[in-house]
Amino acid sequence: MLKIGPYEFNSRLLLGTGKYPNFDVQREAVEASETDVLTFAVRRMNIFEANQPNFLEKLDLQKYKLLPNTAGASTAEEAVRIARLSKASGLCDMIKVEVIGCSKTLLPDPIETIKAAEILLDEGFIVLPYTSDDVVLARKLEELGCHAVMPCASPIGSGQGIINPINLQFITEQATVPIIVDAGIGSPADAALAMELGADGVLLNTAVSSADDPVKMAKAMKLAIEAGRLGYEAGRMPKKRYASASSPAEGMVFS
């Protein structure tokens, strides 16, 4: 089970809901992923406009926990305002805190992220901050009281995969809260590697929604994350410099 604050989830795949070609493909992909958590940008939804199209209407919300995010915020004040709006709408008390500090790379602003997380924690939110793969920053967010930390694999939507596996492994080794790898995952191999490095889960969107077949990719990501987690728990063999025969040399019939 993946435990985040008071919540427990069977799936370790957290799925975004944007960029799908249409609502039907989105629904089929969500179902194929078997995710328990759906994330979405509050600023990109008309949550108080009944006459506006809403992806939530296409899904059985009894099956999922919603994870609103503060995408579009560039300051702590904006992120806090978006989080409060989400909570007021009755969607969820979990929030993915996303404060962007660079419009070109869409990398997070560490100072504003910490400020926003601190305010929202004081207000009783279940806080999951999106951050860079900075080892010290991840630890600081955990010490602040965040319920999970979400380091990026690479820039949002880039599909570059994990560009700094050493830092990611340092983060997972030291953490006592769930580490959810978020952003930059491009293929099932990337998702499996994140789990093999010790991540507790993976959040992705574009890798599925922009695939040629989003439904098949959603299923592939589900299986990759399960395989990566099993591989991590099993413990991989050590790497060796030279070959090592897989059959014992002793007791051979012919010599």
Description:
InterPro entries: Aldolase_TIM, Thiazole_synthase_ThiG, ThiG. It is found in: Cytoplasm. Homotetramer. Forms heterodimers with either ThiH or ThiS. The active site is at residue 96. One of its GO terms (molecular function) is thiazole synthase activity. The protein is an alpha/beta fold. The protein has a single domain, classed as TIM Barrel, CATH 3.20.20.70. It contains eight helices and ten strands. The strands form three sheets. It has a five-stranded parallel β-sheet. α1 links the parallel β3 (13-16) and β4. α1 runs parallel beside α8 (214-234) and α6 runs parallel beside α8 (214-234). It is globular, with a radius of gyration of 20 Å. The model has no long low-confidence stretch (mean pLDDT 89).
Keywords:
5-stranded parallel sheet, 255 residues, TIM Barrel, globular, 36% helix, 3-stranded parallel sheet, alpha/beta
Q: What's the story with the biggest beta sheet?
A: 5 strands, parallel
**CATH H-level name... which superfamily?**
Aldolase class I
> How many DSSP-defined strands?
10
CATH fold title:
TIM Barrel
H and E order: EEEHEEHEHEHEHEHEHH
Beta percentage is 15-25%
- What is the CATH class name? Alpha Beta
